[in-house]
Write the structure tokens for this entry.
Amino acid sequence: MLTSEQARQNQEKYGFNELTEGKKKSVLRIFLEQFKDFLVIILIVSAVISGILGDAESAIVIFVVITMNAVLGTIQTVKAEQSLDSLKQLSAPEAKVVRDDSVIQIPSREVTIGDEVILEAGDCIPADGKLIECASLKVDESALTGESISIEKNLDEVEEAAALGDQTNRVFSGSFVTYGRGRYEVTAIGMKTEVGKIADLMKNTSEKRTPLQVNLDDFGKKLSVLILAFSVVIFGVNVFQGESWGSAFMFAVALAVAAIPEALSSIVTIVLSFGTQKMAKEHAIIRKLQAVEGLGSVSIVCSDKTGTLTQNKMTVEDYYVNGKRIPAGKIDLKNENEKLLLRFSILCNDSTNTDGQEIGDPTETALINLGTNLGIDAMQVRERYPRLSEVPFDSDRKLMSTAHNMNDALLQEGHMMIVKGAVDVLLERMDRIRVGNTVRRMTDSDREDIAVQNMQFSREGLRVLAFAYKQMEEEKEIGTEDEDQLIFIGLIAMMDPPREESRLAVEECRRAGIRPIMITGDHKITAAAIAKRIGILKEESEACEGAVIEDMSDEELQDFVEGISVYARVSPEHKIRIVRAWQEKGNIVAMTGDGVNDAPALKQADIGVAMGVTGSEVAKDAAAMVLTDDNFATIVKAVENGRNLYQHIKNAIQFLLSGNFGAILVVLCASVAGLPVPFAPVHLLFINLLTDSLPAIALGVEPHSKAVMEQRPRPMSESILTKPYLLSIATEGVSIGVMTMAAFLIGYTSQNAALASTMAFGTLCMSRLVHGFNCKDDKPVIFTKRFFNNKYLIGAFVLGMILITSVLMIPGLHGMFKVVTLSLKQLMTVYGLALLNLPVIQGMKYLKER
């Protein structure tokens, strides 16, 4: 123990017991970083040039759009930087320590190396250390290890290199005492504790960018290069035809500004926002917008076991009575020994379940819950057979005994001692066995049968308790010396069972080309048993413990992960390495978890998924998505949503680019032919703001299709601009360009340049509205139910029709939009040419599919 002076010196030497964090970015810096995107830089340059050239409207619109996106991005980033704050809240506010030969209560921040800390049930552990006293001490370390069962502590020496869950002689900051008492010497504080190491991992783990973020950056650069190339060509053609250098340059820049889809970033953000609303209704809360789409690319799902794949609730699976194994669902209370075993399990038990409020050890509450399911009220049983005395559970004895006044036809009247505990310990203390209505001597064959059944239960990942009893001659205070010459009654096997939906969800993952991996802090046998039941594991060789990968290089691990589906007894460092190994192999990885120990891996993963019900705040803050039902099946639904949203975003981009390409072709053709410029700047602005944005957003909220789950995950390296995709954009753009050029030539030959420009503008607007229906799918939809299944697209089409018709036909708007009045015949020509895009493009899709 320390004196006050020694404690002060240690605090000066080692610092305070608190988690430290690196320098945070300011909100202003985060905001400015949103403008680093290449397409955004091009837009800013374009806006500045537009302003200089006198096109103030375009400049204002561009600046408003990119500023809105920057604000949204800043909000998302600031929200994400709260993980360490939640880690800090894990620390106990106060601790009881021995200083100057007396017990005092101090803030946990002041606990230092060498302090002796007193622990009692309910205490939160303030720092890491080694036990020096231990009395039936049980500690819940689920936040650090992921194990749902409290760890029984003892003073036996354990290797420091052992897995965290196996270090039974040590306690760790961030866990809490569920039973018993103890005393320990502090060996690590602050950032040197296991929680501190996790905090350090999180600080040094950079969040991964989703495929859409990578793709849009790549897409923006390629698009900008293409548009600049077109602008250079137009500039050259105009100069060649005798246009002045200044005039040609100004027109080329104006065309470049018009060709870049300024609304693209906003449209993607809006589409993803709609996606998050849909997913929230399906129990998935999205914290980071890009994660919606990233889910659609996932090829590996690394899942925690407890609470995600399982129910996070210990449940009785089997009885072993009268030499037979009986599933919990087939227990017959008319059988005397089965009824007796249930009664004993309720009486030799300290837990309670009142109105659904469970108090006590999970294994004990499982026994109470079994009674409730079979219609037996635990409180009534305990009132009928009151406890007279007890010998509490002890981790050294691995037994618990209770004495009761029994008055039952099944047994002789009088006093009874009930004993439960580890099978191997009780086998040595039993000399008789109850089979049917008789009690006889236990033979070697009986012992072997019990041991074999216990081994079989253990191989299936079940936790086994043995029950025995004996008649007491008189009412007396029982002690450990009475725990012999016992009568064996039976075994009860239990586990945290898989969720009913888990198996189906795993099957669906495999069909969708996604590989599920289990990563857990639990024992290998338990993890493998669950994994087999839900279809993750096929062969035992596919399961390993974290220690196996400890000394592997990153390159060796990348080869190793291919053959492993279950990792048990893993540390936070192991989880990060496993996730990173899959990422290095070109996979998009989703990682689920609920504990503090999962947080670094959640941050490292492309998509971190935290549990909303059982999850720690640390895990939720580090994750991109939070499941409000803690269900693995919800992740599969989220993947389906992500795949659909990516397809919808691609459709919206195709819609924007094919329309823009059509407009560029018309300008290029007119320039080459020596004709007047087909569009005024206000025409291009009208198209960008209204006839582009509304249908593009509507395409983003297209009804979802289940067919996406029959496809393989798209490769991480696959660009949006694939050859087939570019070919579709080009052919559709040519169709729109041809119809628009036809309208321009009709107007030009029949009257003048003003009419030609008006008809070209009207046809381009109408063509793009019609083209929204072409972009619903890669396949033809014109004669299917899908053609009319998007009310938003129909609404955008009708609204766009009204707007463009108003501009063309209302004289008061002509001056503002630089158009002239059209005759009915000319208006019908515009409509007819625009509508002609529908059968032409649908026909091309039909031929392509054939």
About this structure: The mean pLDDT is 85. DSSP finds 30 helices and 26 strands in the chain. The radius of gyration is 36 Å.
